[in-house]
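**Discrete fold encoding**
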Amino acid sequence: FRPKCLRTKVYHEMLIAYLEYVRRLGYQWAHIWACPPSEGDDYIFHCHPLEQKIPKPKRLQEWYRAMLDKSLKDKIIFEYKDVLSDAQDEGIVSADQIPYFEGDFWPNVLEDSIKELDAEEAAAAQLYVEDDPNADSKKGKK
């Protein structure tokens, strides 16, 4: 995008316009993933120029926060908050109460954690059977 000095303003305006558009369609919530893409990945704006640096997480969060602050000022949105603030406000106490989306970070973390717990339980059960002095006499009996 040229001129480079206007890129952020233009991108912010595009996202703000989209938020206004979906609000008019009746949507009341939007979830924004503010995690920098890996090298070669593009999330919202396809094909970043090679000279464009990939921001650090804190910088990208500030970029979105600036866009959301402008959205508040322009009365496009009425509020925004991060996942932790929302969880505290809503009294969320369990991971299954957090909204998650296909391809999102949390489903993968949860699924990996469940697999690890299942593997640990299976290993612990195997150790229990192996340590049981009566295990051989129990085999084959119903």
Q: What stands out?
A: The radius of gyration is 24 Å. The longest helix spans residues 105-131. The mean pLDDT is 83. Helices lie at 7-24, 57-73, 83-90, 105-131, 135-138.
